[in-house]
Specification:
Bound molecules: guanosine-5'-triphosphate, magnesium ion
Largest sheet: 6 strands, mixed
Structural class: alpha/beta
Protein name: Ras small monomeric GTPAse
Number of domains: 1
Keywords: GTP-binding, Nucleotide-binding
Distance between the termini: 36 Å
Number of helices: 8
CATH architecture: 3-Layer(aba) Sandwich
Order of helices and strands: HEHEEHEHEHEHHH
InterPro entries: P-loop_NTPase (IPR027417), Small_GTP-bd (IPR005225), Small_GTPase (IPR001806), Small_GTPase_Ras-type (IPR020849)
CATH superfamily: P-loop containing nucleotide triphosphate hydrolases
Pfam families: Ras (PF00071)
CATH topology: Rossmann fold
GO molecular function, one term: GTP binding
Length: 231
């Protein structure tokens, strides 16, 4: 390996944040993703209901480059297993309701409950978003105060009203999630390191390690046992 630190920096893998955008059909998930990833022009007549979206964007958040891996799903409640899988696969959640739909706000509670259930052992980064805030008199059903109140009630630290149409707070919402993710990731790696130093108890830590690491440990133990039996 080269001893040149700048070369080493160039080849270092970018941190990746896996974000799931969740919200009722029509709340604006696809529009939000297209705006954030491609700065796509807003087009109100172009509503194309989607089952899944997935995109990637390289971004600079607080001068630190990263990859934001984004998936979106409406994922109806009856598909519980799929919903649970999606939650497990992601670490950050952008929960979207539309300010002209009270039922889309009610969906958030339910989805939040599922996140809490699936992520009981870890801390999930969550940002609540009230989209279409450009709709002032045209059928607004949820006030900004009600959105903020729900965020406080669910203990979600991050709340924005957004508008794809007027480009309000779209980037801010994703960046806030990345920041929160970083805090959680740092906290996790620090607490793991200090536990390893203080306890040294492998069995206690095993359940927290990534699968690849567990497989590696398993391989080491098998090789050690094989060597011992040969001696
Ligand atoms: N006024 C306004 N309309 C918006 C905004 N964002 C999205 N829309 C419109 O809302 C409709 C639904 O947007 P989509 O982005 O397709 O919604 P979705 O959540 O992806 O919907 P599904 O794919 O069915 O789950 C479209 O007609 C959009 O143009 C916004 O900020 N303001
Ligand atoms: Mg869509």
């Amino acid at each position: 390996m080269s001893g040149n630190p700048s070369e080493h920096k160039k080849t270092k893998a970018l941190e990746c944040h896996r974000i799931l955008v969740f919200g009722q059909s029509g709340s604006g998930k696809t529009s939000i993703i297209n705006k954030f990833c491609y700065d796509a022009l807003f087009c109100s007549y172009n509503y194309d209901p989607t089952l899944d979206d997935s995109d990637r964007k390289q971004a600079n958040v607080d001068q630190l480059p990263c990859i934001i891996d984004i998936a979106a799903s409406t994922c109806p409640e009856e598909y519980t297993a799929l919903r649970e899988l999606l939650i497990r696969q992601h670490e950050g959640f952008l929960l979207v309701y539309s300010v002209d739909s009270r039922s889309s706000l009610d969906q958030i509670r339910l989805f939040h409950k599922h996140i809490q259930r699936e992520k009981a052992q870890t801390t999930a980064s969550i940002c609540l978003v009230g989209n279409k805030c450009d709709l002032v008199n045209e059928g607004r059903q949820v006030t900004p105060e009600e959105g903020a109140q729900l965020a406080a009630e669910l203990n979600i630290g991050c709340f924005y009203e957004t508008s794809v149409k007027n480009d309000i707070n779209i980037e801010e919402a994703f960046h806030a999630l990345v920041r929160e993710n970083r805090v959680h990731k740092d906290g996790k790696s620090q607490s793991m390191a200090s536990e390893m130093e203080t306890s040294g108890n492998e069995a206690q830590l095993e359940h927290r390690r990534p699968v690849i690491w567990q497989r590696f440990l398993h391989y080491c133990r098998r090789s050690k046992a094989a060597r011992a039996s040969r001696q």
